[in-house]
Amino acid sequence: MARNGRGATLNTASTRFNLPQREADGDWLDEREAIDGAPPPVRTSVGVLTPRTILSYNRSPDIGFDRSINPYNGCEHGCIYCFARPSHAYHDLSPGLDFETRLFAKPDAPAVLRAELAKPGYRPRPIAFGTNTDPYQPIEAEWRIARACIEVLAECRHPLTITTKSDRVTRDLDLLAPMAAEGLASVAISVTSLDPAVARTLEPRAPHPRKRLAAISALTAAGVPCFVSIAPVIPAITDGEIEYILEQAAAAGACGAFFLPVRLPWEVAPLFRAWLDTHFPDRAEKVMAIIRSLRGGRVNDHDFFTRMQGSGPWAELLRTRFRIAVRRFGLDQRRPPLRCDRFRPPRGPQGELFD
């Protein structure tokens, strides 16, 4: 059943890690939905994590970065297709509603980051924000962990990239604009649909798509290279908007674009299917059939390269349309890579004595 302001319609626990299923305790609140005829509201809670490291490294040959920072676990935006949802099972929580309502913040992240950058063997390469959960989801307004991490990187002249669905990123232009002037920062704004009705169910707590286009304009005006990310493209629901999104993003000042076809790993697949049955029952079977055609007969493809691009006629059609539209709207200009040669390790507590 759909819940106002939430993406997932289910909250089943993961079984991949042999975690126990949570059962009702017999309290009358367990029967509230049946009594009231509507699901009770689900409030957001935030716990605290104290990780020993904050930089996550990967060696995936089809990903354009080798290290990332995630200030938060879980994401209140509630995007139903989010491939990070299964990670909530590590907390013995559901990838469904728990993922978007029971969040975790990492307030020690800036201090841990500073310590990692100060290690003698550290070699800089761009650090990616927003690769798992959105660094500018609503709780960033209070916790400001992403900003504090960016402050450390600005001090060290360390390159970074940000991917977000939120116009809240513009609140940090005082940090990002000077970094971009030195070739140290770029931002990608994710726009999946410009249809408010679709966006409201697909990404229920993410900012309005027009606010995201406004963020592209603000970033561009401040000199920050800004890309538009159409990720994911959902066949028979959002694929018809590819050209329109690119046109509007180009008009807003975007300097480039990329897209990814939807992928449904692990517990995301049943959550997505339940969402389809709730919001698009007239085309649910068609959507799933096209997704399987994109993924070699499966709902997800774990193989390098094809997992990001898809395969088959549908994938080729999407790539062709995207390539033509990008060229048409001038979003195919190459930009120099971010600079790593300006990095200077952070100073210690007494570093100023030796300046």
Task: Give a verbal description of the structure.
There is one protein chain. The chain has 355 residues and is of the alpha/beta class. The chain contains 13 helices and 10 strands. The protein has a single domain, classed as pyruvate-formate lyase- activating enzyme (Alpha-Beta Horseshoe). α3 packs parallel to α5.
Give a brief outline of the structure.
The protein is α/β, with parallel strands linked by helices and 355 residues long. Helices cover 33% and strands 12% of the residues. It has 13 helices and ten strands.
N-C termini distance: 61 Å
Q: What is the CATH topology classification name? A: pyruvate-formate lyase- activating enzyme
* Residue windows where pLDDT falls under 50 for at least 5 positions: 22-30, 350-355
What about the largest sheet?
A: 7 strands, mixed
Structural class: alpha/beta
Relative strand content:
5-15%
- Just give the CATH class: Alpha Beta
Q: Average pLDDT, to the nearest integer?
A: 91
Q: Specify Rg, calculated over alpha carbons.
A: 21 Å
Can you count the helices? 13
